[in-house]
Design brief:
Blueprint: H1 3-37, E1 53-58, E2 61-68, E3 71-74, E4 80-81, H2 84-96, E5 99-102, E6 126-131, E7 137-149, E8 164-172, E9 180-182, E10 207-213, E11 221-224, E12 233-234, E13 262-264, H3 269-272, E14 278-284, E15 288-297, E16 304-313, H4 327-352, E17 358-362
Antiparallel strand pairs: 1-2, 1-6, 2-3, 3-4, 5-9, 6-7, 7-8, 8-9, 10-11, 10-14, 11-12, 13-17, 14-15, 15-16, 16-17
């Protein structure tokens, strides 16, 4: 080996060694950065108390939540009240989100994690923007695909396969250095307005009477009772009608726990059918009077109906003292009466807030309104048909050959010849 070749080998060795050292230091630095990011909050110093608007954008649509007089509302449902627990849970989770696995990735690989902007179509993510009162964005998260834990081991960095979601890929804003996996799948963060509504609703308690009026007068009916311990009676009973107590077992709990699936918007009375509804009037022993309206189906393939309600209440202002009431009991009974009256007035105020909306409810919720009059009655038993007995007697001159006297059929022998 001559001197020139030796120098060349030394130079090549130095280059290879330098490259190896550079690669080692790069991997070491990357590992140290990953170790440092592990367990850190996704958004540092998230100002949760300054958030007054939340926008969720997906390729399928957009949702806007905003505070109105300190109450969260769903703008896509005409500012109907949002579920405070659902909104506050999202804010709490974002404030507490921690990195469980940092991800090194380039722009071309973002689609594999569904971390493309919502308007990108396929492989797009869910953009969640947190804004202040003026609408200025404070922070934003781009939520990608769910991280799947394989049922048979061998977790993949990019998910897929069987198993169940144990986290989610996300990115803070558009910063590639913040791509990571968090331990919460955030499965409920979707741009579906109906999922963010406050589903608290009115409740009918201590039913005294219920009447249903339809466009077909023959199906109208009214059930009532004098008190909670009395039996139900059918009003205007006709001849041959008898109330079937087994068939009206539902009446005590009618609309005692109603629910709705959505709030209807931009629906005319003609479209909803609430211009000519099935109308129910309900009276309770506590002084509440409800007017319930059921309209058309929301669509032919769903068993949901348009629905409205209104309520009034009349409560006694003073308590009538008992005949033998003792003076020492008066203060206690008066206090109990005042507390009960206050609760009734609060219930009335809360339920009147539901009057301004048109709701979408399932048929199960308002099933009593679709009962026809015949559905309340004992079924009439059909009497067996009577048939005339057949007369087996026959005239003598038309007697059957099988019943004639055999002697009448004898033919005399011819006289003997002499």
């Amino acid at each position: 080996m001559n001197r020139k070749q030796l120098i060349l080998l030394i130079v090549v060795g130095a280059v290879v060694g330098g490259f190896g050292l550079y690669s080692y230091n790069s991997r070491k630095g990357s590992w140290e950065e990953s170790s440092e990011a592990l367990g850190q909050k996704v958004i540092k110093n998230f100002p949760v108390n300054d958030v007054e608007r939340i926008t969720i954008k997906q390729s399928s649509g957009q949702l806007n939540l905003a505070k109105k007089n300190d109450i969260w509302a769903v703008q896509e449902r005409s500012d109907y009240a949002a579920n405070f627990d659902t909104v506050s849970e999202l804010l709490r989770k974002v404030w507490d989100l921690k990195v469980t696995q940092p991800i090194e990735i380039g722009p071309s690989k973002l689609g594999r994690l569904e971390l493309l902007p919502p308007d990108s179509g396929q492989n797009s993510g869910t953009l969640v923007e947190f804004k202040d009162k003026a609408g200025k964005t404070i922070n934003s998260l781009l939520l990608g695909k769910k991280h799947m834990r394989e049922s048979k081991g061998g977790d993949s960095q990019f998910g897929g396969g069987g198993g169940w979601p144990d986290g989610r890929y996300l990115m803070v804003g558009s910063n590639l250095l913040t791509v990571a996996v968090v331990s919460d799948p955030l499965a409920n963060v979707e741009a579906k307005p109906e999922e963010w509504l406050n589903k608290d609703f009115f409740k009918v308690e201590k039913l005294k009477s219920i009447s249903v009026t339809t466009t077909n007068a023959t199906n109208n009916w009214k059930l009532s009772r004098d008190s909670e311990t009395n039996e139900w009676k059918l009003a205007e009973t006709k001849v041959g009608e008898q109330l079937d107590t087994a068939k009206i077992s539902w009446v005590n709990n009618a609309l005692s726990s109603p629910s709705f699936t959505d709030v209807a918007t931009n629906s005319s009375p003609e479209q909803t059918g609430l211009a000519k509804p099935v109308l129910a009037k309900i009276e309770t022993t506590e002084g509440f009077n409800y007017e319930i309206k059921a309209g058309n189906k929301t669509s032919p393939d769903k068993d949901d109906y348009y629905f409205q309600m209104a309520v009034t209440g009349t409560f006694p202002k003073e308590r009538v003292a008992g005949k033998d009431e003792k003076p020492e009991d008066k203060a206690k009974l008066d206090k109990e009466f005042q507390e009960k009256t206050k609760k009734l007035e609060e219930k009335l105020k809360a339920e009147k807030a539901f009057e301004k909306w048109t709701y979408v409810v399932s048929k199960w919720t308002i099933d009593p309104l679709f009962k026809e009059r015949k559905d309340l009655l004992v079924e009439k038993k059909e009497e067996p048909k009577t048939t005339d007995k057949k007369d087996d007697s026959k005239p003598a001159d038309k007697a059957d050959a099988s019943t004639a006297n055999p002697a009448d059929k004898l033919v005399p022998f011819p006289a003997a010849e002499k």
